[in-house]
Known about the structure:
The chain is α/β, with parallel strands linked by helices. The protein folds into three domains: 2-84 and 225-304 and 439-495, FAD/NAD(P)-binding domain, CATH 3.50.50; 109-218, no CATH class; 305-429. The protein is built from 17 helices and 21 strands. Helix 3 (108-118) packs across helix 4 and helix 4 (122-145) crosses helix 10.
Amino acid sequence: MQSLAGESVVVIGAGIGGLATACYLADAGADVRVIEKNEQVGGRASRLEKDGFRFDMGPSWYLMPDVFERFFGDFDRTPSDYYELTHLDPHYRLFFKDGDRVDVTPDLERTKAVFDEYEDGAGDALERYLEKSRENYEVGMEHFVYEDRTRLRDFIDPDVARQARGLSLLGSMQGHVEDYFDHPKLQQIMQYTLVFLGGSPTNTPALYNLMSHVDFNLGVWYPDGGIAAVVDSIAQLGRELGVEYDTDRPATAIKGREGAFLVETPEGPVRSDLVVSNADYAHTEQELLQPEQRGYDADYWEKRTYAPSAFLLYLGVEGSVDELAHHTLVLPTDWQDHFDRIFEDPEWPEDPAYYLCVPSKTDDDVAPDGHSALFVLVPIAPGLEDTPETREEYRDRILADIAVNTGVDLRDRIVLEERFCVEDFADRYNSYDGTALGLAHTLRQTALFRPPHRAKGVDGLYFVGGDTTPGIGVPMCLISGELTAEKVLEDYGRPTGR
């Protein structure tokens, strides 16, 4: 057992990764304080409450329940100690813009039958695909996600090579999916999860077919109260372990070194022995550290591939939206143009793919009686010009598109409307170019090619969150918190004698 008793740690940023790291370090005996620039904890997993409506502002899918079980289990607790889960049926609904509609349900045989309607033998192909996905998930999680392999020699070790044999490590998701399915709509169904990884079918490694195991086999769930309730639970666990939280307290600089850090804030400096930054990696390096302390220069960050930003509408509407499921995707029959407008030639998409979340389908507490709460998310390129006029024009375009392609006309029923876009991501979360997620999961930005947890230029400074390993998403950020804490314990932990 390793102890951090006597060590003080400041965690900058109360996103999922920062909250998780704080729990692990406090459990190891450290005196942990989390400072957060915004008015609430959660980072991108913030909550919006207004006029009786409640929305998850960011992540809204509860996937990989095994990761949450493991996290709370590390502290002799379970998720059910804090929140209840509902298994969604359907997992999600897809509307294709040529009039087709597909429900993906927990019943695999039913889903196989749907696949067979599009392509002879596709049901059996789905079963083979999911078996490969399950293998990639089980081996990948155990040997390449929970084990942080940060050096090239970690991957050429014979034991690692043996574990990796058979994994879909190379090639793109597009090529991998084409090996199983010819029909473009089936390919889209198998690739939609790439949106959560911030990539496209052509730039995301085939390894991420493991997400289909997450989707089809592990299921899609809803935590009572939304993802914000999960955030509250992790923060509450931290309090039980002794973590202290300061909201509305942005960090403006990191000074000093291990054993004598000063984290500057408008309310005065916070002193600590060690620092963990859950602020965006580029922001921490370029804005909080002195030039000689930075591990990467501005040119490095400029040349990275970033996950999309998003145009978001949070809507409270009168009446029901029966045609929509809790999770609904609206897809053009050819979505490559949309991805090209994100990664190749950035501009607002003409025929967008987008996502609608209607938590009021499952949770009566997120909207007043007789109303529905929903939000619309359109992935767009980071760094796009984001003016009030553009937002207004695009808002009208999307609401019209929803009416045409789902049969739900929201326009005359909206009683609450809030908008969030590129500039808001940059301002609220200090995200590079207003990206909604951080560094995309391209082949050259996966595993050891992502920035490390240990700061290159400052001993005693660590990073956590979606820009580090294992990457983007609430479960991955939970794991990132564990990995960062392991690094701190390796460097500063002391044997307890037990």
